[in-house]
Structure formats: structure tokens, C-alpha cells
Amino acid sequence: MADYFSSLSATTEPLVSVCVTAYNHAPYIAQCLDSILAQECDFGVEIVLGEDCSSDSTLEICRSYEARYPDSIRVITSPENVGMRANYRRVVESSRGKYIAFCDGDDYFLSVDKLRLQVEALEQNPECGLCCTRSLRFVEAKGREWSYPVGRMHTQMEDLLFNNTVENCTALARRDLMLRYYQEVRPEEHPEWLTDDAPMWIWFSSQAGVVCLEEQTAAHRLLRESVSQSRDYRRKIAFCDSLMDISLWMDSRYGANSQAKRLLRRRMEVALWVLSREGSIKEYICRWWRDVRRTPSLLFNLAGYGLIVKNGLKRIKN
């Protein structure tokens, strides 16, 4: 199937650009690329592969695939590490397709029909700018896996502000909207945002419709330590705070601040919940006071008092 993919891409302008970002993904990148090359579709597909100056053999593996499939794969790299956000942007801006799909170097496609099904969905729904599906999430270290999201997939901005159910490896988006996102939002001006995909998909939902397919088409690997996953509770809180800050920013510009109070309450409650389980009482009180000082109305949020009682009882019991 990879030979068919390569020959088709050599003779056809790409309708879909699959943007792959890779950094120290040597154990995983071959599976990622093979899963994209295995796609069964009757339109041109290119792989734009951003390799971010890895310290392992990721670049060598990427170059070997580029040599084997020169008409399908283009490697973009540089002598120095440019970081997640710049790496995403340079592969997007180098893409040529009408549609853009994403697959980070440690993820992979499950269904050989993924791109075909999603292109069909967006062609049939011209008012929609984004198509997503369900994914398989798995933690190799623990041998756990589950379908994501567990419940319904969200399509409205009001829901995505609180629970972004668009898994990056399942997304297919219109390239013209993607370029508008970068020009309008300018995510490079927000180093405090610890993720690149959450603001993107919230913005998409504010600008165009989102169509969701029930098929499970891609797998998202949860590594032991990453920006979004950590055993350090302080890093967990920092990432969750960042998600809420992204949502507050989006709500202020595209939602008329309609969800601001709920978002501020959610940010406080998530941080206090983590601290009630893993932090000290001093850290808990300092965080509670910081949030109340910034947003006085949170003084009346009863969840904060309940969680500190829970924290105290747990420590007494232990």
C-alpha cells in the first residue's frame, strides 16, 4: 500500500497534507509514518515532517523515510531546536493541501480509511472547518488503554472551553482556516500557553462548524513525562492552569466573556483538588488565597472549603 501511496502522490497534487512534528521520537516515528503511508485514498497526500533537532536517532529515521518516499515525504529541520510552537507553524506553512491533518511523531493512525472518511465529511459539510473522530489513548508504561472521549464529543465552543475532546491526531482541518488562525491569534505571542492544539480547536469552533465521526481512527500515546502528563503535581497544576488561561483568552475575544466566571471557578477547583490529594496544606491555602485575591467572588465558592476539610481529614487518618 505504501508503494501505491507514493505513486499516487508523485502524480497528484496533494489534497491532504499530514503535518508530523517529531522530537526525540526514535522509538515511535516509524510506526507513525507507516500508518500514514498505509492510508487508502484516491487523492494526493503529502507528509510534511518537522524534525526539531532531536538528540536521538529521530532525524536519521526521518531522512531514511524521505529517501524511500521522496514524492510523499518532506523533512523540515534546522541546526537548532525551535520548540513545539514554531515546529507546528513551520510544517503548517509548508503544507500544500486543501486540508491539514496532524499526527505527532509518537502517535499513529489506526484506520486506513481515516483521511478518506474525513475528507468526505468536510466535502459534504462546506460550512464546517474541522472534522475529528474518537481515538485510542494508551499508557505503555502501565498497559492501560481506553477510547477517548469516554462520553460525547463536543462541537460547540462553550463545551470545548471546559473539555476539549478534539484529539490532535484525529483532526482534519481546512488549511485556509488554519492559516487564518495563525495570523489572527498569533500563538507565538503566548509562551504561557503550554499546548498548541487546544487554542487552535477552540478557535476553529468559534469560526466554523465541527463535524465528529464516531469511528476510532488514531492512537494517542501518553508518555510518562510530557508537557501534558507528569508525576509532578506542580507540573499538573501548571498545565491545567494553562488550559484554563487559554479558554479565558478565547472566551474574552470570541465568547463575550460569557463563561468567565465558570472558567475561573473551574481553574481554582482543579488546582485545589490536585493539592488536596498531593500537596501540603500550606500550598493549598496559598493557592486558595491567590485565586481569591485575584477574583474576590471565589471567596464564596464552597468547593474550596470542602476540599481543605478533605485534605485535613486525610492527613489525620494517615
Structure description:
With 318 residues, the chain is an alpha/beta fold. The protein folds into two domains: 2-221, Spore Coat Polysaccharide Biosynthesis Protein SpsA, Chain A (Alpha-Beta Complex); 233-317, no CATH class. It is built from twelve helices and nine strands. The protein has helices at residues 2-11, 29-37, 58-68, 84-94, 114-124, 157-160, 175-185, 197-207, 233-254, 260-278, 281-294, 302-317, and strands at residues 14-22, 44-51, 73-76, 99-102, 108-109, 128-139, 144-148, 172-174, 209-221. Strands 1, 2, 3, 4, 5, 6, 7, 8 and 9 form a nine-stranded mixed sheet that branches. The longest helix is centred in the last third of the chain and has 22 residues, at 233-254. The radius of gyration is 21 Å and the shape is globular. It starts with a helix and ends with a helix.
